[in-house]
């Protein structure tokens, strides 16, 4: 804590990319467990790795390393989430327009959301990129990048319900999003969205569709301390 220099915990400290298990190539998301072990989506390598604390290489826990749409393959995986009670892992399979579920110890996944092609209907996803598991409702919140919305998919359901944004309509009003990248929620059920192309973080009270900008300036990018 308080250090001003970083230590490389996974991948190469010189920034080199590669396909060997001690390399990463455009890691998309990371999760750390109570032991300090790392789970990382290795996007361009089309896999997810488990990297034990202090280890010099990772172990494949999802994907084959080759882009594809079989249940043991991924195509640009990004978002990662875990159910801490069961150990089940969830991966946003961006270019397959689906969310995959993996039981502990299995590298064969199950499609639990989307998988019906790219689209904006309630049974489809469009480039899902960010994920958050909500244990209180046994559901996933999904940043549906290409459809400009945040959706909730209850596990076992066949369709989503809209949480934030206007499906298929990019914009910068308080009810719109533009290419949302990630989503999380707090203990009260309030939603926070990284609204990437609007250069802002949006806050949605639980059950509300009107957001409030809590970081950044809408549609203004930059390097100043108040711009995102």
From TrEMBL:
Q: Which UniProt keywords apply?
A: Repeat
Query: Could you tell me one molecular function GO term of this UniProt entry?
Result: ubiquitin protein ligase activity
What highest taxon heads this organism's lineage?
Answer: Eukaryota
Tell me the GO BP annotations in alphabetical order. Answer: proteasome-mediated ubiquitin-dependent protein catabolic process; protein polyubiquitination
**Ranges of the NHL repeats in the UniProt entry:** 164-207
- PANTHER family assigned: E3 UBIQUITIN-PROTEIN LIGASE NHLRC1-RELATED, PROTEIN LIN-41
Indicate what this protein is called per its UniProt record. NHL repeat containing protein
Protein's organism: Rotaria sordida
